[in-house]
Design goal:
Structural class: alpha/beta
Distance between the termini: 44 Å
Number of helices: 12
Strand order of the largest sheet: 2-3-1-4-5-6
Order of helices and strands: EHEEHEHEEHEHEEHEHEHEHHEEHEH
Mean pLDDT: 80
Low-confidence stretches: 34-44, 68-74, 174-178, 205-218, 245-254
Shape: elongated
């Protein structure tokens, strides 16, 4: 798959509510940024590859600059946009064609000229031929390249993408590395420190951090390379319980967070070590468990967890607490860390590598069948109606390992007489027996049952 080079970057900037996120989604080819009529919805830098042209390049969506109504974040958002402008080769300056030229647009145009970068003026919301003349209102800004586009109607984007591609440095991406990019979704309730953890891993203020819960609204993709391995950290919006989602934006953010879990390779559930795993943490852990995704638990703010006790005692205690509170994901490794102090942050990479290696482990078919038959003999499954019992005829590990995936699950195919004779508790017993022989750290185990055909079924066939 073609990926853009790190210097082929175009940043989308403009005042709030001119359609930057909608333009970003069109160039990315999928809905990533949340689009809403409320100004100031986008707060962080969000990156994605654009592949509409012959060579891929990276696009960055930024929060609105200049008149953001959310004063508690306005300075941080402007700083985010400054970083995006600094890292980009091309700046896409978005204005609202319907609303016309505003003093904020004029102020921003002067601001962007000081960057001494290539600037393309995008006049958005020009969705009818009779509106094309509205773009002339912006000629006084003095930019050489002006594009009349409509994000709502997907108009003008092919030409725009080709022009951006031509303005960027040539793509000399000849990398032959076969390292898979591991996508890791950091999930959790609001204000447990997901963005702070990403900033600590990156060692810069990449996502906006605030004491106000709910700072992150979009699922923010953050590329990162460590130890020669490529990662994408997905900073998701904090998941509140449904009855506490006060706005439609929070509902959209929750939906986007759930989508991020589905597209990730690994989920990292972030909990507040000082508070312990709450009922909402358990609900999120259930979402991860139901998704069948590999996972780990990060107990953040560990510096506040019994700070006066010996570290060895604190580590043992937090492991016991998490094991008790999140008992239904016992396979998830637990990292006790502090984004604030940087304590044990690098253990994150160690845990990811543990999970990656575990995903390629496997019992050979002979050992698996001996293990399961011994388990059945030591503790036979209960008898059902008529005294019938579940019988395992043969088992094998699914070998359709997808080489395009960074992390594979552990799925076992069980050939049996009748699946309905096996209680759910007995499945967990078999899973535990497998883990005694092969831990599959961070990897959920699943079973696919294939029933033997009855004589009646064979006669029909």
């Amino acid at each position: 798959m073609q990926t853009p080079n790190s210097y082929r970057i175009a940043a989308i900037v403009g005042r709030p509510n001119v359609g930057k996120s909608a333009i970003f989604n069109r160039l990315a080819g999928r809905r990533i940024s949340i689009v809403h009529d409320e100004p100031g919805v986008t707060r962080d830098r969000i990156t994605a590859p654009c592949k509409l042209s012959s060579s891929a390049f990276t696009i960055i969506d930024t929060g609105g600059i200049g008149s953001n109504p959310d004063d508690s974040f306005s300075n941080a958002i402007t700083q985010e946009a400054d970083i995006a402008i600094e890292s980009a080769e091309v700046i896409l300056f978005v204005v609202d064609g319907i609303e016309g030229l505003t003093p904020v647009d004029q102020e921003l145009s002067s601001y962007l000229r000081k960057a001494e970068k290539t600037v393309f003026l995008l006049v958005n919301k020009i969705d009818e031929k009779q509106k094309i003349g509205l773009a002339d209102d912006f000629s006084s800004l003095g930019f050489d390249k002006t594009f009349s586009i409509s994000a709502a109607h997907n108009s003008g984007f092919a030409e725009l993408a080709d022009t951006i591609n031509s303005a960027l440095p040539e793509d000399d991406n000849n990398s032959t590395s076969n390292n898979h990019n591991i996508k890791i979704a950091l999930t959790g309730r609001p204000n447990v420190g997901k963005s702070s953890l990403i900033n600590a891993l990156l060692n810069n203020d990449r996502t906006i951090v605030s004491d106000i819960a709910g700072t992150t609204r979009d699922a923010v993709d953050v590329p990162l390379t460590h130890g020669g391995i490529d990662y994408t950290l997905i900073d998701t919006a904090g998941l509140r319980s449904r009855n506490k989602q006060s706005t439609s934006i929070e509902v959209f953010s929750a939906m986007r967070s759930n989508s991020s879990i589905r597209r990730s390779d690994i989920c990292a559930l972030v909990v507040d070590a000082a508070q312990g795993a709450t009922a909402q943490d358990r609900k999120i852990a259930n979402i991860i468990s139901d998704s069948g995704k590999p996972c780990l638990v990060i107990a953040n703010k560990f510096d506040l967890y019994h700070p006066d006790a010996a570290k060895s005692d604190r580590l043992a205690s937090i492991q016991d607490d998490i094991a008790e509170q999140l008992f239904f994901i016992p396979y998830a490794p637990v990292i006790a860390a502090s984004a604030k102090t940087g304590e044990s942050i690098t253990r994150f990479y160690f845990a990811i590598e543990q999970i990656r290696k575990a995903s390629w482990e496997g019992l050979n078919t002979g050992a698996l069948n001996r293990l399961l038959q011994d388990a059945l003999a030591a503790h036979p499954p209960p008898a059902g109606k008529g005294g019938k019992r579940f019988k395992l005829l043969y088992a094998t590990m699914a070998r359709e390992r997808d080489r395009e995936k960074a992390i594979n699950g552990a799925n076992f195919i069980m050939f049996c007489n009748k699946k309905s004779l096996l209680p759910g508790s007995y499945e967990r017993y078999l899973e535990n027996k497998i883990r005694e022989n092969c831990a599959y750290t961070g990897i959920p185990i699943s079973f696919t049952f294939r029933e033997r055909e009855t004589r009646k079924q064979r006669r029909k066939n």
